[in-house]
């Protein structure tokens, strides 16, 4: 019997002690391994427990169902992406387009390095994509990008700026997914990142 996609995606409880935190970390690491190897269709709490070397009951102490485990993995991914955006795009010591170029390189590199798990999480999206947490994560990314676009394009209309922001983010998602579907060398990733950065920077420069 599989878990329902409509079940709660919240963790059952938060680990308060170091031992509990270690257990949760072991469960999540096992979940990543199971998801990457088996895919979302064969992803179950039982397989995660077996890989982690713990009982299913131990898993259920913190995650009520497989959807909550998948959501936690995705939430960690969202947090890492948000931190990357903040660290790069809000670094005012560098010119805006230089920051965008750095973001392109960091983003594509992470897409290639974590291709298996990200593909699996995309397949698992129906379990959490309409959750309040998912909407909040997307809103946070939008806010960061909109603030950056206001800095890059201070003189254009709001509609032009919104279009530019949407185009850049859509391009990131589509290109990152397509590019990471094939194993890439470091040289290929760098060359592709440079080409994509050239294109996006030229587009934004043309709007000014």
TrEMBL record:
Keywords: DNA-binding, Repressor, Transcription, Transcription regulation. Transmembrane segments: none annotated. The keyword DNA-binding applies. Residues 21-81 form the HTH tetR-type domain. InterPro entries: DNA-bd_HTH_TetR-type_CS, Homeodomain-like_sf, HTH-type_TetR-like_transc_reg, HTH_TetR, TetR_C_18. Residues 44-63 bind DNA. GO terms for molecular function: DNA-binding transcription factor activity; transcription cis-regulatory region binding. This is TetR family transcriptional regulator.
């Amino acid at each position: 019997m599989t878990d329902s996609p409509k079940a709660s995606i919240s963790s059952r409880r938060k680990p308060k002690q170091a031992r509990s935190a270690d257990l949760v970390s072991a469960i999540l690491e096992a979940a990543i391994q199971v998801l990457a190897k088996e895919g979302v269709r064969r992803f179950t709490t039982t397989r995660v427990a077996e890989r982690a070397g713990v009982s299913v009951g131990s898993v259920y102490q913190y995650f009520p169902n497989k959807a909550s485990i998948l959501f936690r993995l995705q939430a960690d991914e969202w947090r890492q992406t948000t931190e990357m955006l903040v660290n790069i795009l809000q670094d005012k010591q560098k010119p805006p387009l230089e920051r965008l170029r750095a973001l392109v390189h960091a983003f594509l590199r992470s897409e290639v390095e974590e291709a298996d798990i990200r593909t699996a999480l995309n397949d698992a999206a129906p379990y959490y994509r309409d959750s309040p947490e998912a909407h909040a994560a997307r809103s946070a990314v939008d806010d960061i990008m909109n603030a950056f676009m206001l800095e890059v394009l201070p003189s254009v209309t709001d509609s032009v700026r919104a279009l530019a922001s949407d185009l850049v983010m859509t391009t990131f998602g589509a290109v990152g997914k397509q590019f990471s579907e094939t194993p890439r060398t470091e040289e290929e990733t760098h060359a592709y990142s440079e080409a994509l950065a050239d294109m996006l920077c030229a587009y934004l420069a043309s709007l000014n």
